[in-house]
Amino acid sequence: MTKIDYYEILDVKRDADAKEIKQAYRKLAMKFHPDRNPDNNEAEGRFKEAAEAYEILSNPEKREVYDRYGHEGLQGQVGFSGMEDIVSHFGDIFSDFFGGDIFGGGRRSTRPPRPPRGADLRYDLTISFEESMRGVKKKIDLKQLKKCTLCDGTGSKPGTYPETCLTCQGSGQVVQRTGFMTIASVCHACQGRGTKITHPCPKCEGAGRAPCSRTVTATVPAGVGTGMRLRLAGEGEQPELTGDPGDLYIFLEVEPHQTLVREGNDLIGTVEIPFTKAILGGEVEFSIVDETVRVELPAGTQPGDRIRVVGKGVPHVGHVERGDLLVDVKVVLPTQLDSEQQELIFRLDKSFKIKAKAEL
Question: CATH 1.10.287.110 occupies which residues in the chain?
Fold first, then answer.
């Protein structure tokens, strides 16, 4: 028999994204699941078709093969051994939608609920312009909640242990059945932990964590700028009893430089030169933090010209490359001349044979 096109089975366009395909499959699975259609061979067949179509179109590699070569290209890759295999193969999708098995006939996820994660922390750090260029290590003093040292994070008084929750029997979940639906939710008695503390730790009062002061070292790489942030994994607060700690986020602010301006990874500065240097050209020195850069001025440099020195700007974070240095030229004219200088300027002026023009 000629197989029906998978896109037609799920009633989606050929350019449908993963979310649209998943939603279409969910709709058909809910409609034709055997538990909702007992002794209905047609519904069972539709459910199998939808499951097979979703299995192919939800897999990027298999979907690409199918789009190119059709059903023939998938020979040997598709096939199920009966309804039980389909329910087993696709049972997890219902956990994604509803947090558990919504049908009585399939398997219910036995995975325990994920332990809560500790809170993330924020720290605002100000560094100098010079430190942002070089990179720096900074010690940060924190006050946060960390694992209790008396009970080692168990929350129980030393010598005692948490007891199994009687409501969920240690699973962390309670199951409710409504008609054909079975819905699992987090146990309210133990908040999903599966255990209850009957003898709380006197230091942390059963929370498994206590306030503490500690110092961490943050490595700030060269090239950072205001608004950037660093993430120190696991340096945030500890959750209650179990679970991974949160992260510490360091938000950076770089103090401005007195003479330099940062624009992206380029640095912009100004150099003052006498008019003779502008006419004749030559070399000037320009200081950047710990480095002196030699800037070549071409003969005939005009006031306001910008000279680019490649690779002398701000480092790119995590790379050896740097931006450029852009030097704006300011030509300084003398305001007082002695007689000898006046004579030289007068002779120079006559040699140019250029008359001033006024435009009205």
Answer: 6-98
Between 231 and 174, where is the model more confident?
A: 231
pLDDT in tens, 266-316: 999 999 999 999 999 999 999 998 899 999 999 999 999 999 999 999 999
pLDDT, one tens digit per residue, over 174-195 is 887 765 566 778 888 887 778 8
Tell me the per-residue pLDDT of 18-54, one tens digit each, with 9 for 90 and over. Answer: 999 999 999 998 888 877 888 888 888 888 889 989 9
The domain 121-162+197-253 having CATH identifier 3.40.50.12100: the answer here is no
pLDDT band at 73 (very low <50, low <70, confident <90, very high): low
- Using one digit for the tens of pLDDT, what is the confidence trace for 130-161? 999 999 999 999 888 888 888 888 888 998 88
pLDDT of residue 174: 84
3-state secondary structure (DSSP) of residue 71? helix
**Which two three-digit tokens encode residue 83?**
């309804």
Domain(s) of CATH 2.60.260.20: residues in the chain: 121-162+197-253, 261-352
Instruction: Indicate the CATH number for domain 261-352.
Output: 2.60.260.20
Write out the E strands in 90-225.
Answer: 121-127, 136-147, 163-164, 173-178, 181-186, 195-196, 209-220
Q: Please, what's the largest Cα pairwise distance for the chain?
A: 117
CATH topology assigned to domain 6-98 = Helix Hairpins (1.10.287)
